[in-house]
């Protein structure tokens, strides 16, 4: 059971996306904030426990970012629908996340490895959460500038992921962190 707990925690976070969406729809900001705090806690807990118990798995490497992206996308969608979050920002979040998930799946199929999150990606999700919270709680001082800071990080993180995909395109053998293994031959 211990081996599967990190993945179950990721699934729990994934399942919290819908209640967050409906809490925002109902105008229950405090409930939405508590649910988002649970998402944040589970995001830290699943990775910590997986490393501590040596339970890191390809399934976990897929579930964790899927849960993060689903929660962020649902929050962005609800804020677009009911709090006037600009459509361009919603599309930037959703399209970037969809491309990263598709790129990760392509990388898995091509190289046999599931890519890990990178540091810029982790920073980006935290910036996006801050931007979305500013819209949830109508923090006018940060709302507009936050959109542009968030857009910068969305683009920067996408570029970082795209560089990893480029490396996979060039060679087929990578370790679990996306580093080229010795003796790997470039694809022609």
Description:
This protein has helices at residues 5-15, 17-25, 29-52, 58-83, 87-111, 119-136, 140-170. The longest helix has 31 residues, at 140-170. The protein is mainly α and 188 residues long. Helix content is 77%, strand content 0%. It is built from 7 helices and no strands. It has one domain: CDP-alcohol phosphotransferase transmembrane (TM) domain (Four Helix Bundle (Hemerythrin (Met), subunit A), Up-down Bundle).
Count of discrete structural domains: 1
Fraction of residues in helices? over 70%
Total E-strand runs:
0
SSE run = HHHHHHH
Largest sheet: none
What is the overall silhouette? globular
Can you count the helices?
7
Would you give the CATH topology? Four Helix Bundle (Hemerythrin (Met), subunit A)
Please tell me how large the radius of gyration is.
17 Å
CATH class: Mainly Alpha
State the end-to-end distance: 44 Å
Q: Keyphrases for this structure?
A:
single chain, mainly alpha, Four Helix Bundle (Hemerythrin (Met), subunit A), 7 helices, 77% helix
Briefly say what this structure is.
With 188 residues, this protein is mostly helical.
Outline the secondary-structure elements.
Blueprint: H1 5-15, H2 17-25, H3 29-52, H4 58-83, H5 87-111, H6 119-136, H7 140-170
Helix pairs in contact: 1-3, 1-4, 2-3, 2-4, 3-4, 4-5, 4-6, 5-7, 6-7
């Amino acid at each position: 059971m211990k081996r599967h707990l990190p993945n179950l925690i990721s699934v729990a976070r994934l399942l919290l996306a819908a209640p967050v969406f409906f809490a925002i729809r109902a105008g229950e900001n405090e409930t939405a904030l508590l649910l988002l705090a649970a998402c944040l806690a589970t995001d830290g807990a699943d990775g910590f426990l997986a490393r501590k118990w040596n339970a890191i798995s390809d399934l976990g490497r897929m579930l964790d970012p899927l849960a993060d992206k689903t929660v962020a996308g649902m929050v962005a969608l609800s804020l677009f629908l009911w709090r006037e979050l600009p459509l361009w920002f919603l599309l930037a979040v959703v399209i970037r996340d969809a491309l990263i998930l598709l790129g990760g799946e392509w990388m898995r199929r091509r190289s046999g490895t599931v890519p890990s999150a990178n540091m810029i990606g982790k920073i980006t999700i935290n910036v996006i959460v801050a931007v979305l919270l500013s819209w949830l709680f109508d923090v006018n001082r940060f709302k507009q500038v936050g959109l542009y800071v968030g857009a910068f990080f969305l683009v920067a993180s996408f570029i970082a992921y795209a560089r990893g995909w480029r490396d996979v395109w060039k060679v087929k053998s990578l370790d679990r962190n996306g580093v080229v293994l010795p003796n790997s031959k470039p694809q022609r």
